[in-house]
Amino acid sequence: xxxxxxxxxxxxxxxxxxxxxxxxxxxxxxxxxxxxxxxxxxxxxxxxxxxxxxxxxxxxxxxxxxxxxxxxxxxxxxxxxxxxxxxxxxxxxxxxxxxxxxxxxxxxxxxxxxxxxxxxxxxxxxxxxxxxxxxxxxxxxxxxxxxxxxxxxxxxxxxxxxxxxxxxxxxxxxxxxxxxxxxxxxxxxxxxxxxxxxxxxxxxxxxxxxx
Length: 211
Prior knowledge:
- Helix content is 38%, strand content 20%.
- With 211 residues, the chain is an alpha/beta fold.
- Helix 3 (89-103) packs across helix 4.
């Protein structure tokens, strides 16, 4: 698939999930001329380390998405309470429907339907409801996936993986987490690439494919 002129929406329950799940693919899609929107639902203020401002993740997501090449006007950040998105799922659905009607995306990336984090599965389920007329791909966050269907692969180049690593480095509040380690990010992309005979790749659960 060529992503030129495709309208793409990335749904991130928390402000780093989109980069973790499909950061290299975002870099590739932008390079090929896609229009990429990034929607984050929680800045996880309650989880920010004490020596940072409470709104630090709202700042970091702006830096991270800019590092990938997403224009700030295409970034939307909600402030729902972390770990409690399931309590406001109808409100989230209504916001998603507004975004759907405004953008009319061709492709939507969201957490896998097998993700066990309560915020992630809420965004996944409501995203599937809202965007059922678009192609939907579920991204991989292996620390939250008890199982994962590698139905779809996006071949990426090393420069795309490096952009993903650079974007994630903007999250100073998340330093020290194992899934933020550049070696892990590169290694996972290498493993997924090996599965399809490529140097690097990201893989996705195919939820809906519209040709």
